């Protein structure tokens, strides 16, 4: 990258801008759609607690590592590794991130398309007077499509592309600043309605009363994978955001705020959903449809539910957009930097490619559902490989890079820029990125993939 390009990079003017952008990327379908559904699949509270442990011990240090790499290099993930570790294979970490981004956005677009369809369903009164069973068949009939879920998926992908091309990302983030708090308000309203349903307490027990004997190696690996997925880590998204952060900002505080916001929203989503799951007799391990099959029942049983439902799916779609743009940008950056393609062309090419793969994800819910690998359909396969393998692998390399390659002096320098951070905190961070994060990722990997049994 040449000098002009570097000097014309702008930095976020306000602290809130950085947090809004990073939180916009982190908070999305991961919190509201994926977290409840995989918590249901892996048995509830025990999964939640392992997930929280991973967030604190691995997610937070990896997030700080990504922000540090970005701010130090003032480049996106490809440029960053080339600049900080010239002529070394470290830039392959960026490639891993591109592979993850392509896979994630392919199925992410499908689920976001479901959310758009549910705006329409809510607005046309489709939830009215339906029993929980009918809600379930309505969902299943819809995702089996084949045509309409694909059209909504493509619509979402075009919206994502348009935002990246027109460059109104900052504008979107301005709206997101008040739309996301509004989403949180609606989720809290849903929580209140949900926990006051008959039979709600069983749902709360499911979510908060752990039975660790239910945990499997695959469940632990999925908790790790979801910590990365939900915080947008392991593929360089936050390297790019870090590159725009002013030297005067305290990145440790930013990382902490984003992590807390993301985690609180996921837990709130869990509280909104599980009591209702039990109250309406829905199977907690229903899979990717859990949220779509459950929440319409709750809306139906609350005052103003008609409007809340429209608003909820609308805001969920916006939350998905502020995440999907950050995923698309990883691929676009790759096309531009490594293949020297023009920005707009890169964006269109990436969108077309990812949408095409996404179509097969959508079809794997219906006409292609018989085609499986390791017992997973195409949709689940992309989700599993990207979240449970590629992102943690990316996180492993990123923590090794910061902890072992950059070394203590450089981290300390970057870390204390813009903040007066006490010495022991720096030491804790270094200890976490050097030993705990890579060690834990390696162990969970080997155990989860059945390559090694840690008992
Ligand atoms: N964190 C986003 C979500 O929870 C998804 C995402 C993953 C975004 C990886 C960027 C990178 O919805």
TrEMBL record:
One cellular component (GO) term of this entry: membrane
SUPFAM superfamilies: SNF-like
Compartments it resides in: Membrane
GO molecular function, one term: symporter activity
Chain segments annotated as transmembrane: 12-33, 45-69, 90-111, 150-168, 180-200, 220-241, 253-282, 302-335, 347-368, 388-407, 428-452
Chief localization: membrane
Keywords: Membrane, Symport, Transmembrane, Transmembrane helix, Transport
Recorded superkingdom: Bacteria
Pfam families reported for this sequence: SNF
Membrane topology (UniProt): Multi-pass membrane protein
NCBIfam families: Na_transp
Family: Belongs to the sodium:neurotransmitter symporter (SNF) (TC 2.A.22) family.
Protein name: Transporter
């Amino acid at each position: 990258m040449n000098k002009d390009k570097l000097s014309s990079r702008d930095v976020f003017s306000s602290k809130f801008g950085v947090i809004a952008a990073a939180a916009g990327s982190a908070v999305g379908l991961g919190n509201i759609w994926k977290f409840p559904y995989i918590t249901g699949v892996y048995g509830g509270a025990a999964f939640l607690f392992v997930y929280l442990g991973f967030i604190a011990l691995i997610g937070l240090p990896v997030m700080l590592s990504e922000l540090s790499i970005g701010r130090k290099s003032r480049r996106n993930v490809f440029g960053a590794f080339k600049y900080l570790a010239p002529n070394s294979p470290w830039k392959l970490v960026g490639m891993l991130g591109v592979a993850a981004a392509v896979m994630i956005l392919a199925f992410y677009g499908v689920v976001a398309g479901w959310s758009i369809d549910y705006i329409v369903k809510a607005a046309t009164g489709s939830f009215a007077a339906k029993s929980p069973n009918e809600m379930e068949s309505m969902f299943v009939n819809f995702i089996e499509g084949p045509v309409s879920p694909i059209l909504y998926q493509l619509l979402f992908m075009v919206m994502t592309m348009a935002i990246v091309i027109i460059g109104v990302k900052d504008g979107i983030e301005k709206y997101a600043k008040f739309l996301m708090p509004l989403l949180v308000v609606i989720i809290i309203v849903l929580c209140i309605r949900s926990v006051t349903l008959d039979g709600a307490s069983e749902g709360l027990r499911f979510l908060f009363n752990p039975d660790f004997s239910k945990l499997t190696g695959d469940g632990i690996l999925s908790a790790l994978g979801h910590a990365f997925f939900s915080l947008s880590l392991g593929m360089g998204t936050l390297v790019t955001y870090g590159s725009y952060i002013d030297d005067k900002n305290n990145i440790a505080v930013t990382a902490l705020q984003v992590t807390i916001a993301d985690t609180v929203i996921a837990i709130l989503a869990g509280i909104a959903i599980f009591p209702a799951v039990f109250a309406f007799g829905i199977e907690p391990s229903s899979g990717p449809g859990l949220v779509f099959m459950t929440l319409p029942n709750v809306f139906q049983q609350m005052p103003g539910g008609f409007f809340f439902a429209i608003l909820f799916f609308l805001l969920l779609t916006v939350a998905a957009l502020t995440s999907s743009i950050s995923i698309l940008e990883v691929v676009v950056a790759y096309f531009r930097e490594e293949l020297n393609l023009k920005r707009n062309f890169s964006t269109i090419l990436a969108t077309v490619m990812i949408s095409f793969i996404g179509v097969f994800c959508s079809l794997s819910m219906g006409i292609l559902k018989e085609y499986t690998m390791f017992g997973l359909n195409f949709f689940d396969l992309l989700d599993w490989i990207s979240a449970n393998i590629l992102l943690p692998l990316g996180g492993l390399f990123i923590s090794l890079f910061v902890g072992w390659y950059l070394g203590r002096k450089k981290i300390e320098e970057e870390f204390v820029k813009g903040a007066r951070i006490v010495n022991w905190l720096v030491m804790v961070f270094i200890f976490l990125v050097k030993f705990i994060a890579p060690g834990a990722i390696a162990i969970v990997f080997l155990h989860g993939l059945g390559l090694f049994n840690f008992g």
